Amino acid sequence: MADKQPLIQPDRGQDAISVHLVNRDGFPEWKKSLSASQRAALDAQKFDGGGYQVGIVPDGDGWFAVGGVANPDELSSWCMAKLAESLPEGTYRRAGGEPGPALHGWQTGQYVFDRYKKPERPVGPRVLLTKDVKAIDGALAEAQAVCLIRDLVNTPAEDMGPAALEEQCEALAKTHAARLEVTRGDTLEQEYPMVHAVGRAAARHHAPRIMHLTWGKESDPVLAIVGKGVCFDSGGLDVKSSSGMLLMKKDMGGAAHAIALAGLVMAAHLPVRLHLLVPAVENAISSNSFRPGDVLQTRKGLTVEIGNTDAEGRLILGDALQRASEENPELMLDFATLTGAARVALGPEYPALMTRRDETAAALIAAGKAHDDEPWRLPLPDVYREWLTSDIADTNNAHGNAFAGASVAGLFLDKFVGEGIDWAHFDTFAWRPQAKPGRPKGGEAYGLRAAWHMLQARFGGG
């Protein structure tokens, strides 16, 4: 979307097609203002004001649109998304009010992933006008960040391996005059041993690495953002089933979220010293794969026994979280497609949120509710820490029962976050199994908007 014309633009009185928003309760009264032929047109379309319905009403030599919403006085992000998906190319204006939060879904509803397959009947842009000019730049940036996540997650692993994630970080650094350091090879093995161990079995062009981007004044508070970049997860020697591997191109969804969020931070000139860390690997199977029962060294100095090679995301995050902790951040956020247990508990819609501090959880949840991106908090219970005990190492990477899988994974990560650091962990799905208005099937951002609006409120950027 970044390369296309803005889908929301300032309303300066230019010609535009009107869009009326109604709900089922208010529709009969609103319908009385129409002519007999206009009422007949809506009847023919079986339009009754129900949610996400779209109607076309003839009006002289032209026409206007009508959309069904839950409450015309309290719009959500998605209230006008179905209109954006369904209406023909053109410029539109909401009649009798402003789009408000619906600016977001108007844009994301027009997202198409066309890298490999072009639409049979492409539709030109549907532009929405608003008089709230101050809201435009932020709304554009937010929607572009969401669509970037979708693009990255939708791209298959052969074209979105560790090198491709590195290219994304390079582009981000260039755009915002940030500094990027990439660690690979022997240096990676020495400085980030778990990242190296997980990724060492991959082919050379998918070799493991970690990207570390820094931006902002050194005098500003440190914000660390970390994203899990497992570009494909076979499960390693604890190999997944074929059905379990089918969506594993999305296992770098945490990295996609982290990259997109870092872009928002820098574009808005948030007054922070940003550290973005993206460990990027492919968890492949080869003669040099790391094995169940191996003991890995870590950047922190802890030793980790491998109880399951398919619990690899927490390993690469461990080294990255340790590196981020060395900057003593005021706040650390990480995003990861970490556990199936989180999806069993919460389904795809709600990213699992784990934090050390109640006030940080409350701020993220409030920001998410206000912007239709609500996370759901899960605990980090001390009573389960013993489940990661190893007989031969400082910790195991997996526990031996089927209980509390998301929380136990969070407890493993907690071992690598510095003492006293305010830390929040998002276990996100990064994938939408079924389409909804404004939200097509495929790669998806969950938790991004919650985190972004919390950061703006916390650091004074909005």
Automatic annotation (TrEMBL):
The keyword Nucleotide-binding does not apply. The keyword Hydrolase applies. Keywords: Aminopeptidase, Hydrolase, Manganese, Protease. Gene3D superfamilies: Leucine Aminopeptidase, subunit E, domain 1, Zn peptidases. Residues 308-315 form the Cytosol aminopeptidase domain. One of its GO terms (molecular function) is manganese ion binding. PANTHER family: LEUCINE AMINOPEPTIDASE-RELATED (PTHR11963), PEPTIDASE B (PTHR11963:SF20). This is Leucyl aminopeptidase.
